[in-house]
Amino acid sequence: MSNHNRVHAGVPDGGQYAESARARPSIDLGLDADQFDQAVDFDTSAEAIARSLIDPKTAPHRVRAIDVPDIEQAEQTRNELIDTCEARNPIGDEHVPNLIMLTKHEARDEARGSLPNMSENEFDYRWARVETAHGHMAAFASRQGQDFAADTHPSERIVARSGEVDDDAYAHQLAVEWSRSYTASLDEAIAADQDAEIGSLNQSRPPMAV
Asked: In terms of Cα–Cα distance, which of 150, 115, 118 is closest to 131?
C-alpha cells in the first residue's frame, strides 16, 4: 500500500533495523521481571502523551538494532506500523485514488495486531505516542503546514521558534523534529513489545530442576 522510502522533503526516515543502519545510543525501557508480576500504570491521557513526547526526560529515543532481540521481526513490525500510520494520516497523498484510510479505532486494531504482547495499558501508551508523533509530523509536512505553524499550541512546539523564521521554515523544522520523535517512538514500541514477549515466555517456562 505504501512506499516506505516516501517521505516529505527533509523529513528523516528509513529502515532502523536494516543491516546498514547506523548504531544509535541504547536506552533503558524500564522493562524488568517485576513488570510481568504486577501491572504498570501508564498515563494514556492526551495531555500526558503530549508532554511525554516533548519533555527531554521522557521523549522517545532511538533503539539500536543490536538491542532488539529479533531484528527481522522488528523490521516487519516497523513496516506494518508505518503502513498503519500512513493509512491514518497520509502525507501528500491527496491525489492518489482509492487511498486506504483508517479510522482511529481501525488503526488501533491494526497496530494491536502488530504489537500483541504488551499489556493493554502499555500498548495504549506506546501506540498513542507513535500515533501522536506521526500525526504532528504529517500535519506540519502537509501543504497546510505553514498554516499550522503560524498558530502552534505549546504541546506542538517540539522545537523553539526564533524571530527570524517564517511560517514555512518553522513548519519544516517542526516536521523534521516530529519525524524524529515518531521514528524513535516506533523503535521504543517495537522493543517494548519484544521485551514483553520474552518476559511472558520466561514466566510460562517451568522451573529448572536443581
From this structure: 115
